[in-house]
Write a structure and sequence with these properties.
Helix 24 links the parallel strand 24 and strand 25. It is built from 28 helices and 26 strands. The protein has a seven-stranded mixed β-sheet with strand order 14-26-25-24-15-22-23, sandwiched between helices. It has a six-stranded antiparallel β-sheet with strand order 6-5-7-13-8-11, with no helix packed on it. The protein is elongated. Mean pLDDT is 83; it is low at 72-77. Helix 17 runs antiparallel to helix 18. The two termini are 42 Å apart. The longest helix has 36 residues, at 664-699. It is an alpha+beta fold.
Length: 738
């Protein structure tokens, strides 16, 4: 038993109704917490709770949808295999269908052909050949429709296969009776529709082939990510180096990464020096130097030097595997907009069968003959398949989130895709988000009687174990000075820290911290104000309760930050900055970036309150941040976006992660959300409009006025093309630029 989400690959789903029934079967398994089924990817994401894998798989098999656990990050090109299999069936069906279609329909369009066939073969022989070829089509390449459609119908859960099976069977049975038992039919109605039965199956197989190919393109982003991981690794065992399958590598194994190879797993460099291309994560084209004790990430490309690494994270624990998992989870998300389509699809097939029965009954009472009623009923069954409606939302999500991953925007929670479209405010943290996050000490102003080296020595000792960017700047300023080990260090969230170093009390942080601790700033207060006016951050240092110095910390604005704010404001969004920095420093940066609202001097809980205030004033809020102190705000916002260069805590609290640490990714995420939601609405509109318009036509609504009746063959072609249209429209999202 496990509480970790499990991914299952599902067979046998042919329409959105199947996905709904599969989800209900999974959620009905005792112990399952939640299950989501994605029709587009033919997969399910299950939180098993107390349920076992065997129980889950058995429930799916009993429901008619065999499922198997997807255990490896190595994503197989399932769509490619499916496309090849359906293509083969379509080719076989075409070979047997063409003679039937050409001779029957050609005879109607070109009467001399009809007379020649009947003059040489005779009607009975000609119909018998059609019967044999059509039966081959139904029993060989079209067998799946009947093997799955009728059992689903008998279980009271009809699906697309049921509609195809009913339609093709009705045409075939009627035609067989007309051929072998014509006396059972009223005089003048003994016509055959073998070509309709054969063409229905062939055209629907064509649609499935095109759809499978398109879905394969939709999964290209996942395959591109997985393709970054090599299948083998060079493992050092004693004095020997053996090439082994990647699945055999365990944490602690020593691996050799040769020049020009991709790093197989996440690891720690223990020997060698090289430059590694990490653009797949950071987007930066310049390789990064890696030497002893540096970390490397699986999937990155080694340069000209050989590296010896110790594997630290393997299999599903690697960064690449986690990214793939998150992309797949986002692709399987169920958006609120999908609810209407799901409700319609849930009852659609039974309603269609009922409409087909009503259509046949109506034309038997008021129509010309029984064959007319049959054609109308079969056309309704075939044209009304809800595949397009079922594909409308998941295909757009699949392509949109995949394209986002290629652009360095990782949707950790798929429903953020819809929520992001609704935001009216974009609030940014400052340090590490709008600025580089690599502060430097630009100036040191000492209080009277204080020694510069002594102040820096004690401050550097207090900060040397902190990972905060300002702490790193202070440690860098104390470089070369002997720094004793701190006896105690206490972080004061959002304000600074206090420490005991060499028997002295060291307090480092904001003016607010100094005031709370009763430290008199004296002349340092005006000095700090001058620093703030220059967009520099003042950091105070007190020793034994007495002000010792104020440091000015500078942090350069990130390239593209100005363009980012301009772009977002052009979309009518309100821009805010929430920071723990001083008001004057924050205001100086806000003026440079043309930010609308600035809230400075904030503690983590203050940022939560600020987000609530912004939401009340303007509407839904997206917050972009990177630090531990941003985690509460990321969780509080309607959508939280974490910089990929930030802390794990911040990323875990966010809905979206920007893998490349570029704030412009926020604009990409917002733009992609808008494009994807527009694409979903287009798909849903055309899918609903298609069924609303063509079901009455198939039922014969135009016949009394115009003499028009849709043939089952045209109905099958239209149904197949509707799904292909939806998938093709979704694939346009692959062309979205950053």
């Amino acid at each position: 038993m496990t509480s970790q989400p499990l991914r299952f690959e599902i067979d046998g789903m042919s329409c959105a109704g199947c996905a709904g029934r599969a989800a209900r079967a999974l959620n009905a398994v005792p112990g399952v917490v939640e299950a989501r089924v994605n029709f587009a990817s033919r997969s399910a994401l299950v939180e098993p709770g107390q349920a076992t894998i065997d129980h889950i798989a058995k429930a799916m098999t009993d429901a008619g949808y065999p499922a198997r656990l997807s255990e490896s990050v190595q994503v197989t090109p399932r769509e490619d295999a499916e496309a090849r299999e359906v293509r083969t069936r379509f080719a076989i069906a075409t070979i047997f269908t063409l003679p039937v279609f050409v001779t029957e329909m050609g005879g109607h369009l070109f009467p001399p052909l009809h007379h020649t066939i009947h003059g040489t073969l005779g009607q009975t022989t000609f119909w018998t050949l059609q019967y044999l070829l059509t039966t081959l089509v139904l029993c060989w390449p079209g067998r799946e429709f009947f093997e799955r459609g009728f059992p689903a119908l008998f279980r009271g859960a009809p699906d697309m296969n049921s509609l195809v099976a009913l339609g093709a069977s009705a045409a075939w049975i009627y035609s067989s009776v007309a051929l072998f038992l014509p006396g059972l039919l009223p005089p003048g109605t003994g016509a055959v529709y073998f070509e309709a039965a054969a063409v229905i199956v062939t055209l629907i197989l064509l649609g499935r082939w095109l759809e499978a190919r398109a879905r394969g393109q939709a999964g290209a982003a996942i395959r591109a990510l997985v393709g970054l991981q090599p299948s083998e690794a060079h493992m050092r065992q004693g004095n020997d180096v053996k090439t082994v399958d990647l699945s055999l590598v365990r944490a602690g194994d020593i691996l050799i990464v040769k020049p020009g190879e991709r790093v197989p797993v996440d690891g720690l460099v223990i020997e060698g020096t090289s430059f590694v291309d990490e653009s797949m994560l950071t987007g930066e084209p310049v390789p990064v130097e890696k030497t002893s004790q540096d970390m490397v990430t699986g999937g990155t490309l080694n340069g000209q030097g050989a590296l010896v690494i110790e594997a630290t994270r393997v299999g599903r624990d690697t960064m690449l595997a986690r990214i793939v998992d998150l992309v797949q989870e986002a692709q399987g998300a169920r958006l609120p907009i999908q609810s209407l389509a799901d409700r319609v699809v849930g009852v659609f097939v039974p309603i269609v069968i009922a409409l087909a029965v009503i259509t046949v009954a109506a034309w038997l009472l008021f129509g010309p003959d029984i064959s007319f009623a049959l054609v109308a009923g079969v056309s309704v069954l075939i044209i009304a398949c809800p595949c397009a409606m079922g594909l409308a939302t998941p295909m757009s999500i699949m392509v949109g989130t995949g394209r986002a991953a290629e652009l360095g925007v990782l949707f950790r929670k798929g429903d953020a895709l819809q929520r992001l479209e609704e935001v009216r405010v974009v609030a940014f943290d400052k340090t590490g988000t709008l600025t580089e996050g690599r502060p430097e000490v630009a100036q040191i102003a000492l209080a009277a009687g204080m020694d510069r080296d002594e102040v820096l020595r004690l401050a550097g000792a207090a900060e040397q174990k902190s990972e905060h960017p300002i702490a790193e700047a202070i440690v860098a300023a104390a470089e070369g000075l002997e720094r004793p080990a701190a006896e105690s260090v206490t972080a004061l969230r959002g304000m600074g820290l206090e420490a005991r170093v060499s028997g002295r009390d060291v307090l480092i942080g904001t003016a607010r911290l100094m005031t709370e601790r009763g430290v008199d700033l004296g002349e340092m207060e005006s000095t700090a104000q001058a620093m703030s006016d220059r967009a520099e951050t003042p950091i105070f240092i007190a020793l034994d309760g007495v002000i010792a110095a104020v440091l000015s910390i500078t942090d350069q604005i990130k390239p593209g930050a100005v363009d980012l704010v301009t772009t977002l404001k052009a979309q009518g969004l309100h821009i805010a900055m929430l920071t723990g920095d001083t008001p004057s420093t924050a205001q100086a940066i806000a003026t440079t970036l043309d930010i609308d609202t600035v809230k400075a001097g904030l503690l983590p809980q203050d940022k939560q309150t600020a987000i609530t205030d912004l939401r009340d004033a303007f509407g839904p809020v997206v917050f972009v941040g990177d630090g531990i102190n941003d985690a509460p705000a990321l969780a509080q916002a309607d959508v939280g976006i974490a910089m990929g260069s930030g802390t794990d805590v911040a990323i875990e609290a966010a809905d979206i992660a920007l893998l490349r640490g570029d704030p412009r990714g926020a604009a990409t995420a917002i733009g992609l959300s808008a494009r994807t939601m527009r694409n979903i609405r287009q798909n849903l509109f055309w899918a609903f409009a298609y069924n609303a318009a063509l079901i009455p036509v198939a039922a014969g609504a135009l016949y009394p006025a115009f003499g028009l009746l849709l043939s089952p063959m045209l109905a099958a072609g239209a149904m197949a093309l509707s799904s292909v249209f939806v998938v093709t429209n979704a694939l346009r999202l692959r062309r979205m630029a950053p």
